């Protein structure tokens, strides 16, 4: 038996955006840049994440997950670009990416 607890997709999206934004070293940041420690203690450490990702989070979408979500909407004129931006942000994994093992017969047999 395999039980999968699925979080609300909107909640996951906002959480992923805020997590990456929160880890980002910002100008005047008093936190020490340290990649591995930032995951464990983001109050004391930050990450110098790739410039492209930092610009997407802080400039393009103004540190606002709602602006990003609106750009991803089906009728948005910026949807195609926003989809590429989404794939550039680490920690933003789709549910199908998390559950990819369910499409692999060998892995399913291992679970049984």
Structure description:
- This protein is mainly alpha-helical.
- It is 54% helix and 4% strand.
- The protein has helices at 9-23, 35-40, 51-60, 65-72, 79-88, 95-98, 105-111, and strands at residues 32-33, 45-46.
- Helix 2 links the parallel strand 1 (32-33) and strand 2.
- The termini are close together.
Question: What is the topological layout?
Answer:
Blueprint: H1 9-23, E1 32-33, H2 35-40, E2 45-46, H3 51-60, H4 65-72, H5 79-88, H6 95-98, H7 105-111
Parallel strand pairs: 1-2
Provide a short characterization of the protein structure.
Helix 2 (35-40) links the parallel strand 1 (32-33) and strand 2 (45-46).
Shape category? globular
What about the largest sheet?
2 strands, parallel
Task: Compute the separation of the termini in Å.
Answer: 7 Å
Strand order of the largest sheet: 1-2
Point out poorly predicted stretches: none
Mean pLDDT across every amino acid position: 85
Decide which structural class fits the backbone. mainly alpha
Helix content, binned percent: 40-55%
The overall strand count is 2
Taking Cα atoms only, what radius of gyration do you get, to the nearest Å? 17 Å
How much strand content do the residues show?
Answer: under 5%
Q: What's the helix-strand series?
A: HEHEHHHHH
């Amino acid at each position: 038996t395999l039980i999968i607890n699925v979080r609300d997709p909107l909640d996951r999206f906002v959480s992923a955006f805020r997590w990456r934004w929160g880890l980002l070293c910002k100008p005047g940041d008093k936190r020490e840049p340290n990649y591995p420690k930032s995951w464990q203690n983001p109050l004391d450490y930050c990450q110098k994440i790739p410039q492209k990702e930092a610009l997407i989070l802080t400039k393009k979408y103004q540190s606002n997950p709602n602006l990003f979500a609106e750009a991803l909407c089906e009728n948005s004129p910026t949807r195609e670009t926003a989809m590429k931006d989404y794939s550039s942000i680490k920690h933003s994994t789709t549910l199908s990416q998390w559950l990819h093992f369910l499409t692999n017969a060998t892995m399913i047999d291992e679970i049984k």
